[in-house]
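Ligand: adenosine-5'-triphosphate. Inputs:
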Amino acid sequence: MSTVQGRLRIAVQKSGRLAERSLDLVRDAGLRVVKGNNDLLYKVENYPIDLLRVRDDDIPTFVADGVCDLGIVGENVLEEGKNANPSQEGANASVVMPLGFGKCTLKLACPPTLDYAGPGSLEGARIATSYPKILRRYLEERGVSADIVVMRGAVEVAPRLKLAAAICDLVSTGATLEANGLVAQETVFESQAVLIRSPAAPEPGLQHLLDSIIERMAGVVSSQG
Ligand code: ATP
Ligand code: ZN
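Predicted complex:
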């Protein structure tokens, strides 16, 4: 990748649940996005701005490190990734504003056969999740100690396979839980897409553009609210 000088960078999810709405927001804010000569970088033709298209999990780190000035990511990913890189401690990306899309809830769910009467019912149990940090904190705050098993995907099949007694997974409609015979019990974390900004200053001369992009995005979001 060639180093781009004198441009702002916005990190967006390349493909997935946030990809389209993220691009829509950028376009609605008046940025004319054109495909670059590679998949990773899209260019904005009417401003010195590039879109870096990456996996959502990488977005908080890129923005925290100043590789990108802005990013669009789910709060769940941001929260789980906080201080993920020990050398960067204290330099997290900060939330500029919630964006009103990508809404979902991290829920604790279990099969109806588990006699659930509150988080305490999970004491000593095995719980599968892709969000071990958020779940651990939730359980600790409630004095519950459980065995957290990290799964990157297909968390909802864990109880059926006897890999775990319960799961903690993202839910939007609840259809996936239902299809897997699971009952939602607790809300662990409410999430939506957020605009995040870097603790690092943009390249020289670009602060004004950065501020105006944020302002326009805020205008788009509030007009949709
Ligand atoms: P990537 O390839 O970028 O790593 P991914 O598979 O991790 O993609 P997606 O499934 O595209 O991620 O979800 C991206 C984000 O969309 C989630 O982190 C979450 O903030 C949001 N989201 C909204 N609804 C849901 C849902 N029902 N299940 C999972 N994520 C959801
Ligand atoms: Zn991801």
